[in-house]
Amino acid sequence: MVVAPSGLALRALNVLVVDDELELRKSLTRVLTAMGHNVFEAERGEEALSIIYERGTNTPASIHMVLLDVNMPGISGFEVLRRIQAFDLSIKILIITAHGSIREAVIAMRDGAYNYIEKPVQEADLEDLIKKASEAHVLVQELGLSSPKLTLDNGEQFIGKSHQMQAVFQVIQRLGMVNTSVLIRGENGTGKELVARAIHLNSPRKDKPIVAVNCGAIPENLIESEFFGHERGAFTGADQRHIGKFQHAEGGTLFLDEIGDISPAMQVKLLRVLQERKFTPVGSNRELRCDVRIIAATNRNLEEMIRRHDFRQDLFYRLNVMPIHLPSLAERTEDIPNLVEHFIEKFNALHARQGTGREIRGIREDALNALRNYTWPGNIRELENVIERAFVLENSLYITLQSLPEEISPRVGKLLTSREYADPTIAIDFHHQKEQFERDFIVRALRRFEGRINQTSSHAGIPKNTLLRKMKKYLINPAEFGPVDQNGEENHEKRQI
Questions:
Q1: Which segments within 163-252 are labelled E, that is strand?
Q2: Residue numbers of the domain that contains 372
């Protein structure tokens, strides 16, 4: 049994030492064995991967940690790192690097390595690093890599068994151990603020405040005051002293949402604060020091903004020390069943507290398939709204197609239901129902492929000429589903903006 510095009891881990120096391998093996770990050795990257693949994932025999030399005969340590990450994200990788090769180790950490240790390896440093990595391994297992949920200290949850979300879980855990700036990228509704809170709550700053600022919602003439505060009389209407967000977040985390919306002038002032860790309130002569971790987020293409000189490149580099990409819901459809279950539990609890007597026990398979096939422009936020809507409209104990919005299940409310077919008072018109089905099918196909005519034609099995003719007949505008040019081809220039 190994005990981490925090007091968390840790079980013995299976550790793989990968280095072409026999003497170093034996020395590392001796220290790790004395710490209670099970140690395996490999001289080359190919041999290391064979051991990892053979022992599998999520079994008692699985490799939990790898000490990896970057420069070895055969495939490089970077390639070994990449393949291990692709195979099992829960494996903690420690880079062994020679003095003078720290840059390689830093690159490896950005690619997913947990940390690095320099040669010649000092036994005390190795023991300390192994203990920390062991604790991190256990925490990651508890927080999501062995289950589809990551629960924050405040009870909020991330849901996701997909490979993309498991990668996000691991990065969140790793970022809790450092104090670097973070840039979260992703579409609206993917949970960028939740990720920021997760990083904060898993860091040593968790007992201090996290302050969120929506940069796009603050008027240009007030943003400096909101960030840095102002003195009484600093400008017209400033009848009292105002404390800015940087002071409110002292010792904690400042979350700058929609960072791409701040003006060039404000970008200069923000860059200075990040570089010098001090600022001056508006109308003051006092310079204040600040200890704040910056987490920024945006759904905009900052690289394109840099090319247009709308965003400072040096500020981008200051913020983008550790980037996180949040996948859209359309990129992680395998998580939809777990998300639906989570939201059903959430709204069942809400209705129980309100005493409405409303309860939903699950979702019908055809309704779940409709959710899987939808493109989700509003991402998780939209899915939550859909489930909340179903609690209002559904008459049974299970969510059905009838309680889903029309854009997700277009035939509901347009095509006749089986009950309507049996009703002799309702006229049955074959040609009308056929045309309605055609139109709904084309709309759903265009929505899935974002208005791209060629892709819709190819994947839906409709000849392009036929598709264009039907679109004209049913007055369907492909521009409603994505940026396209007048010929129906994808407009790449617009799509990049």
A1: 182-185, 210-214
A2: 330-409
Tokens of 249: 């977040």
Strand locations in 177-225 (E): 182-185, 210-214
Residue 423 lies in a domain: no
With the CA atoms of 299, 303, 308 and 314 taken in that order, what torsion angle do they form, in degrees rounded to the nearest 10?
110
Given the structure tokens 């927080």, which residue do they identify? 143
| Residue in this structure with the two tokens 């809790």, named with its chain if needed | 176
DSSP 177: T
Alpha-carbon distance of 212 to 235, in angstroms, equals 25
Asked if 68 contacts 94 with a C-beta cutoff of 8 angstroms, the reply is yes
My answer on whether 176 and 127 are in the same domain is no
CA distances from 308 to 264, 268, 305, 311, 496 (A): 12, 16, 5, 8, 13
Q: Which residue has the tokens 């969510």?
A: 399
Task: Report pTM.
Answer: 0.52
Conformational region of residue 191, where left means phi above 0, alpha means psi within -120 to 50, and beta covers everything else:
left
Consecutive 10-residue averages of pLDDT for the chain (497 residues): 34 88 92 92 93 84 90 87 82 80 74 81 86 67 42 57 72 76 89 84 82 89 88 80 90 94 91 90 88 94 93 92 87 87 90 89 91 89 91 89 83 50 56 74 84 85 87 81 46 30
**Can you tell me the distance from the alpha carbon of 141 to that of 143, in angstroms, rounded to the nearest whole number?**
6
Alpha-carbon Rg for the chain in angstroms:
28
Same domain, 458 and 404: no
Query: Could you write out the DSSP letters of every residue in 423-440?
Result: -TTS---HHHHHHHHHHH
SS3 311: coil
